[in-house]
Amino acid sequence: MQAARGTSLNDDDDTVLPATAPSAPSKVRLRLLFAGVFAVLYVTDVVSKILAVEHLTGRPDVEILGDLFVLHLVRNPGAAFSAGTEYTVVLSCIAIAAVLVVLFLARRVGNVLWAVALAVLLAGVAGNLTDRLLRAPGPMRGHVIDMFMLPNWPVFNVADMCINVAAGLILLQAFRGVRIDGTREER
């Protein structure tokens, strides 16, 4: 017996069953994925900074893998490589704008990888923004806590890793031609 178009046969009893096509994830599932990834990474960043301040303040560096990976506490008022230390308020304003843009874009997400990319980006930006808002010397001027040190690289934190991973995922989606809503660009 041959199955009709759009149906498939069950080999055990020759019953004709409707064909199922893989469907795109629902908006609700994508938003839950976005919220879950964001929450896990944001909390990881905040907790790692709390632990770094608690356990590394006033102590010598902690070698994890010799000189290759070291825990080294830094309070950074600027951006990467401590550049722009006199622009902490400007960096805070840029971070606030970035959070708002990511939240706006997240409403349009129609693809799993885009949901993950934007959630990871939001976790990174919000993690460092939290430091700028809540840490000394005061709101909008707070210093970001960095603690991971590699040779010939600026000291960084979980939020910084998130921002870089998100950039990679966003570039991947752009090269693949996948828009935020999940549609593909015509080539």
Please give a quick description of this structure.
This protein is mostly helical and 187 residues long. It has four helices and five strands; from the N terminus they run E-E-H-E-E-H-H-E-H.
Structural overview:
- This protein starts with 6 loop residues before the first strand and ends in an 11-residue tail after the last helix.
- With 187 residues, it is mainly alpha-helical.
- It has one domain (22-176).
- A hairpin with a 6-residue loop joins strand 3 (62-63) and strand 4.
- Helix 2 packs antiparallel against helix 3 and helix 3 packs antiparallel against helix 4.
- Residues 3-11 have low confidence and may be disordered.
- The longest helix has 30 residues, at 27-56.
- The chain has helices at residues 27-56, 88-106, 112-134, 158-176; strands spanning 7-9, 16-18, 62-63, 70-76, 144-149.
How many runs of DSSP E, i.e. beta strands?
5
Helix content: 40-55%
> Strand content of the residues, in percent?
5-15%
Order of helices and strands: EEHEEHHEH
Largest sheet: 3 strands, antiparallel
What is the tally of helical segments? 4
Mean pLDDT: 90
Straight-line N-to-C gap: 41 Å
Low-confidence stretches: 3-11
What does the radius of gyration come to? 23 Å
Number of domains: 1
Global morphology:
elongated
Trace the largest sheet across and list its strands: 3-4-5
Structural class: mainly alpha
